[in-house]
Design a protein that fits this description.
alpha+beta; two-stranded antiparallel ribbon; 2 helices; rod-shaped
């Protein structure tokens, strides 16, 4: 099934259709074809075509994964900033308590 991508509310949604479209690649070097056949067999695919369909599908979906990775890294950065702010607030509170009651609250 062919995948059609549409953007709804900032998320990629995959809608499966029953149509397939052929892709033809011309002027492929024989060494490349041989290498593709070797890779297809090594990874357990029944044919070069099945292997290439798998590779193309992964390539097409890679953008979705890259977007998720970017959002994850942004979230981690935001959490790091929040932790830093919380640490600073805790240190200020500790200093205030030490000034009010005396003693060292680091213990």
């Amino acid at each position: 099934m062919e995948a059609d991508f549409s953007d709804r509310k900032g998320k990629m949604n995959m809608i499966k259709k029953k149509t397939r479209i052929d892709i033809k690649i011309r002027n492929v070097d024989k060494d490349i074809l041989y290498r593709l056949d070797v890779l297809a067999r090594r990874f357990g695919f029944r044919s070069r075509q099945e292997y290439l369909l798998h590779v193309l599908t992964r390539l097409a979906l890679e953008e979705v994964q890259l977007e998720a990775d970017l959002k994850y890294n942004q979230l981690l950065s935001h959490l790091k900033d929040l932790l830093q702010l919380n640490t600073e607030a805790l240190n200020e509170n500790r200093e205030t308590l030490e000034n009010m009651f005396g003693g060292d609250f680091n213990e």
